[in-house]
Amino acid sequence: MKTSFEGIVSSGGLQLDESVDLADQCRVHVTVIPINECPQKWAESLSNLEELRSSEPIRSGGLRYSREQLNERD
Asked: What domain of life does the UniProt record list for this protein's source (predicted)?
């Protein structure tokens, strides 16, 4: 039986929003995925990158090849 529940972390433990229909002391496998944290961190990182890009161009410092050099075939 696989199922998915939502809940909160409280004092280092998990508190589920609804009860689980399993016997007491039944061993389970738990995977925890933060719900709101991932999109917020992604948006924050993206806004930081946009701010950096607008303040000065991002240069790799590498060689700059011409179109002919990039399309050169042997």
From this structure: Bacteria
The Cβ of residue 14 has, within 10 Å, a number of other Cβ atoms equal to: 11
Q: Are 7 and 16 in contact (CB under 8 A)?
A: yes
Predicted confidence (pLDDT) per residue in 29-57, tens digit: 999 888 876 677 888 889 998 998 889 87
Task: Locate 19 and state its tokens.
Answer: 């009860």
pLDDT score of 26 more than 90: yes
Q: Give me the residues paired with residue 9 across strands.
A: 14
Question: Is residue 60 packed enough to be buried (19+ CB in 10 Å), middle (13-18) or exposed (0-12)?
Answer: exposed
Phi, psi (deg, nearest 5) at residue 14:
-100, 135
